[in-house]
Design brief:
Low-confidence stretches: 1-50
Mean pLDDT: 87
Structural class: mainly beta
Radius of gyration: 21 Å
Distance between the termini: 29 Å
Shape: globular
Helix content: 10-25%
Number of helices: 4
Oligomer: single chain
Largest sheet: 17 strands, parallel
């Protein structure tokens, strides 16, 4: 058994152990066996197939992101911009209708904002912010390196059907970005980045206006390392994707798509190879769970497409159906 799936199973069964109470718990105690030890033993000897089925029903029970472990915290302590405050160390509210972070090393946290947040400095940390943006972006990175976006809640105001893009690297040149534990909802694209780490995010309830292409996580081409790890992404629409790697502006190379719980879209995953485009390389698609909570084939057309098995360093391994843990084979294209 691979170590990562095993540890994931232990997390899942730890939650089950916590629910062992009453006569069952008393019996185990009399035997000198904790509920967790007993269940972990069963996991270790039963394989991953039975341990991890149907995670899409309740992602956090299997250790995946959902509303219970993502998004902004401490709502009562938040200040509203610009109603309560209009500037602070390293940032200001622009009267034209957006917020700018313009000083390196700024920490921006515990705010409620209803407009775009433009990051124009390096080494910025954004955490515990509620963004209900009326604009094009929730958070826009503009030539900003080493930005960390953590535990934010990002979506449109109630009066809007969708926000266009939750988080975007506007120029595709932001180095070292980390996007983690955010709850992003009702967007046509939740996250668009070309490099960095996207992990432990909950992306759901995608939004649509006429002409939109719906993407959970989108890349339009780069050779710099992009890691998409351990996210829950559900695209309720029958078009485009939960994760889309496309060669719109460059070859797709050096991507890691690992241990995500994903469903929906036309195809749930586009793995990088555009028809007639340059050959993809070093794209590793591993340990992902394709769920059927939205469509019977994960995506409307199927779980995945655009994987080039001939590309140097490309890997498709240990990807499974969420409902029964059967292997999802590499797409034949």
């Amino acid at each position: 058994m691979a170590m990562k799936p095993f540890l994931q199973n232990v997390k899942c069964f730890a939650n089950a152990a916590a629910r062992v109470t009453g006569s069952h718990a008393l019996m185990l105690r009399r035997m000198g066996i904790s509920a967790f030890v007993m269940i972990a033993f069963l996991v270790a000897h039963s394989g991953s197939a039975t341990a991890m089925a149907n995670c899409a029903v309740n992602p956090s029970s299997c250790g995946f992101p959902d509303k219970t472990n993502t998004g902004a915290r401490k709502v009562s302590a938040f200040k509203r911009i610009p109603q309560d405050i209009k500037k602070g160390p390293g940032w200001y509210w622009d009267s034209r209708g957006w917020i700018v972070i313009n000083k390196n090393g700024t920490t921006f946290s515990n705010f409620i904002i209803d407009t775009d947040l433009s990051v124009e400095a390096d080494n910025v940390v954004i955490h515990d912010v509620i963004i209900t943006s009326n604009g094009l972006f929730g958070i826009a990175l503009r030539h900003a390196d080493n930005v960390r976006i953590e535990r934010c809640t990002i979506g449109p105001p109630l009066s809007k059907t969708r926000l266009t893009i939750g988080i975007k690297d506007v120029y595709g040149d932001a180095l070292g970005a980390v996007v983690t534990q955010n709850h992003i909802f009702n967007t046509s694209t939740a996250i668009q980045m070309e490099q960095g780490l996207i992990t432990d995010n909950y992306i759901t309830d995608m939004g649509y206006l006429a002409g939109d292409h719906i993407n959970g996580i989108l890349s339009t081409g780069s050779k710099k390392l992009l890691e998409i790890r351990h996210n829950t992404i559900f695209n309720r629409f029958s078009q485009t994707d939960a994760i889309g790697l496309f060669e719109d502006f460059d070859v797709q190379a050096n991507r890691v798509v690992d241990n995500n719980l994903i469903a929906g879209g036309g195809y749930t995953l586009y793995a990088g190879q555009n028809p007639g485009g340059p050959r993809t390389y070093n794209i590793k698609v591993t340990n992902n769970r394709f769920a059927v909570n939205l469509y019977g084939k994960a995506g409307y057309w199927g779980p995945a497409t655009a994987h080039n098995k001939y590309g140097s360093g490309n890997i498709w391994s240990n990807n499974v159906w969420d409902y029964n843990n059967a292997v999802v084979p590499a797409p034949n294209n």
